[in-house]
Amino acid sequence: VRISRYGSSPFLSKMVENNKPTFLALRLNSSKSSVYVWNGKMKDDSGEPLACEITLDGKTHTLVTVESGYVLYISGCKFISASVEHPKAVNGKYAPGTYKIGRDIPKDEYIVKRISGLYCGLGFKKSIDPYVQNVANDFEMFDVSTYYTLSKDGYVEITGCEFYDADSCSMASIGCDGPTPAMYKVGKDIKAGTYTITPDGSGKSYYAAASSPETVEPAQLKKATNVTVSDGEYVYFFRATMKYCKNPNSGLDPDATLPQE
After folding, report:
1. CA 146, CA 161: separation in Å to the nearest integer?
2. Residue 50 · residue 44 · CB < 8 Å
3. Buried/exposed code over 38-58 (b: 16+ C-beta within 10 A; e: otherwise)
4. Measured by CB atoms within 10 angstroms of the end CB, which terminus of the chain is less buried, N or C?
5. DSSP conformation letters of 104-122
6. Which residues pair with 186 in a beta bridge?
7. Structure letter (DSSP) for residue 73
């Protein structure tokens, strides 16, 4: 495997060759960070080595598996053997990037926080070889901050969001409170009881209540609806507002953000 420098970016000058080494590409302070890969064993339509660009736009890092014969040009990032360093959480937060499930990030419950634009989600893949990375691919998108149980194998790529350990974080601790559209855990983020969820008039409002994040099935919300939830359950609403009812027949309680004591 040959690693070269593109522009003034740092690069790894020595590498131990083995069957399929994996590397961690760490984004530097650069407006453009990417890894260009040329596979000498594969040709494009013109007969040239097949090229592949792996960009780090919006991510702190990525993981790349390479084979003997690949040529890598590295721009705006640092390349490190994953046997020496691998991505991990910092203070319970996983930044946008690629992680190996079970090694870099445990199978567990997390809070997903949207951080940018319309594109927020998780991509799953069995391989991080740039030429086979689309094999067994799966992608899940989120319209609001939510709870998510990571249970798959392989690799997960976090895009447009941050991952927080749900055992040590709450919706309030990451900046979401009761009135903000999101998924909340009852008894932790909000108190048990009856809530009035009201659509915003866009015709695109949804809500749901369920026993786990995996069983949440959003239903269209056409008018104000009361939902009763218990500790340990989850409530989700999108393009709507939610307020707590001390008594469903006697008005609304604006204090919907405090856990039940």
Report:
1. 11
2. yes
3. bbeeeeeeeeeeeebebbbee
4. C
5. TB-SSEEEEEE-SSS--EE
6. 190
7. E
Buried b (16+ CB within 10 A) or exposed e, 133-167: beeeeeeeebbbbbbbebebeebbbbbbbbbbbbe
Euclidean distance between CA atoms 255 and 257, whole angstroms: 6
Interatomic CA distance for residues 29 and 226, integer angstroms: 49
Pairing of strands 193-199, 93-94: unpaired
C-alpha span between 182 and 95 (Å, rounded): 20
pTM of the model: 0.76
H-helix or E-strand containing 72? strand 70-75
Q: How far apart are CA 88 and CA 232, in angstroms?
A: 28
What own/partner pairs with CB < 8 Å and gap ≥ 24 does 10-19 have? 10/74, 10/78, 11/74, 11/79, 12/79, 12/80, 12/81, 15/81, 16/81, 17/68, 19/67
Instruction: Identify the residue whose tokens are 């890092």.
Output: 61
Secondary structure (3-state) at 190:
strand
